[in-house]
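## retry 2 of 3
previous attempt timed out at serialization; input unchanged, resubmitting
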Amino acid sequence: MNENNKIDILLVEDNPGDVKLIKEALEDTNVHPNIHCVRDGVEAMKYLRKQNPFEHVPAPSIVLLDLNLPRKDGRSVLAEIKSDPILATIPVIILSGSDAPQDILACYVLHANCYIVKPRDLFGMNETINTIVDFWLKKVKLPTNSSALFYDGGDM
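## retry succeeded, writing output
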């Protein structure tokens, strides 16, 4: 969480319908997170590295990452996050439409924190998001000072 104890979630999703479902499900939780959404992998990395136009964004508590994204796919984003010592501690939750065993294995090899297949209906999405919130934002102890490690906009 950031220094104001607000929960910030970075949602990396290009499908407007899925964005709407996920945001509505997150807003219906009793956590009331700040949801920051980017639509492709290039924007996700700019956000995480606080590069233009994201210089003043808060560090996310978690990243919800789709795999099939334009410009840079989710696997590449995951690999980049987990290979960067500053970003590697941010939990990355894969939220994908794919249930292909090779996609699941590839994400765990790249150090995804978990892999969830997107539900196909509103009830399923609400249940899934509530499970994510209950586990990742209520039960799990996350680093308390991730913003101190978060990029300041400069190069490493």
